[in-house]
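One chain is below:
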Amino acid sequence: MTKLLVSAALLIGSSLFAEGTIPVAGVDPLKALSFLEGTWEAKTQGGSAGAQSAGTYVFQMELKHHVLGRHSNNDAGCKGPVDFDCNHSDLLYIFPDEGKKTLKAIYFDNEGHVIHYIVTVPQPTLAVFLSDPSNPGPQFQLVYELINGTMFGRFQIRMPGDTAWKTYLDWSGGKK
């Protein structure tokens, strides 16, 4: 009986090793963001951008579940001020820090912006992405909140010396 148990353990262990999926003790820090996963519609509703657009974005696990990625694009029919990029597209990658104690994110867009965020999940369906206030220039905040099957998003800016956040863009939509 003991030989049978040892053989079974070795067989299971070697198959896990061969696949590169040896389980790690502890909780997956990205699990708290699982409510974001999927393809979402996004329709803008306001904010200082003054734009009306619609599009989609997808949150999905990537790189063997080490990174949660978001890819977005706008549909045709965007209307906005001259300085608003209706052909906007961006990437957001969320990952645990090296100690796996906090979540970080990095954002890139087709306008050349790069934003580094610290990510918190203060409630089970609320994620807050906050840029470092010690960096020169404005501070940025990106918020996602799932309420009754609708994902609400908000991108906000706080200028140096200001205490209040100003919403640049609001959007919402259901899961596709």
Notes: Residues 1-25 have pLDDT under 50 and may be disordered. Helices lie at 2-19. The chain is about 10% helix and 50% strand. The two ends are 51 Å apart (CA to CA).
